[in-house]
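Anyone able to model this chain together with ribose-5-phosphate?
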Amino acid sequence: MNFGQLSWGKTNRLAQIFRPNKKGEHHTVMLAVDHPYFYGPTTGLIDPRKTILPIVPYADAISPAKGTLEYCLDPLIPTPVILRVTGGNSILRREELSDEHIITSIEEALKLNAVGVSISVYIDTEHQSQTIKNLGKLANEAGKYDLLVLGITAVGAKLEEKVKGEGGKGDKDFDPGKYFAHAGRIIQENGANIVKTYFCENFEQVREGIQVPIVIAGGKKIPEKDALEFTFRAIQAGVEGVDMGRNIFQADKPVAMIQAVKSIVHEEKTVEKAFEIYNDLKQ
Ligand code: R5P
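re: yes, here you go
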C-alpha cells in the first residue's frame, strides 16, 4: 500500500485502519453502517444496537454517521471510526440524491474521536461542482488536524441507471471502468486520502488511475458467495480493502460473513475457502 508522503498524524491514522498481513502488506475491512443518513431505517440497521454490535469487533474500522455512532455504538469499543459528515438528501427524493452538503463539522468529528471523515462526491451529475467543493473545503479543514478524508464515488439517480442498468435502462455504451477511474482520480486530486468506489469490469484502469488507497463498496445485497467473489477479484486487482455494508449486515449470518470477507482481504484465501469458512462459522 502506498502511504505516500503524508504527515505523521495521517500516516498513523491510516495505519490504524489498514492492518498488515504476514507479508507486511496493509489491507482493511471497514464496516459501512452510514446508510440511514439518507435511507432512514435500513434493513439490518433498523436498530443497530441489536444488529451490528456483534459484527463491529471484527471490523478494522467502522463508517457510521453521527446518529448511529452516538446513540447505538459502545464508546468502549476501540475500533477506529471514519465519520460520515455529508448529507442533506433522502432516498424519498431520488432525483435530488446528489444535492449534498457538509452537515457534521470537523470539530464534531474530533469530539467523537474519529480518525477520519467520509464524504460523497457525485461526478457527472447536476451537483458535481457543489460536491467537489464540499470535498475541497472538508479536506482543508480535516488537514488542519491530520484527520483522514475518505472520498466516496457516489452514483446519483442518473448514473445508477447507467452503471447498474436498473429497470433494464442500462447504457450499453457506458464504460464503468473509465467512469470510476475518472471520478476516483478527481476525488484524489481534490483532497481525499482514501477513495471508495465500486468494483467493475476493466478495473485495471481504475487502479492505474488512482494512487491513494482504494476501498470497494459492496452495493446491494447479493448472494454471499457472489459478494466473496467480487471481493476476491477486487483484491486481485490491487485494491487495499473494502468498506462493505449491506453484503455483511444483511447476510444470513453477518458475523460469519465479515470473517469470510476478512479471510480473503487479509489472508489471501480463495473464494471457495472463504465460502467454506462462512458455512463453517454459520453453524
Ligand atoms: C453510500 O453512500 C454509503 O456510503 C454506503 O456506506 C456504501 O454504499 C457502502 O455500503 P454498501 O456496501 O452497502 O454499498
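The first helix runs from residue 8 to 17.
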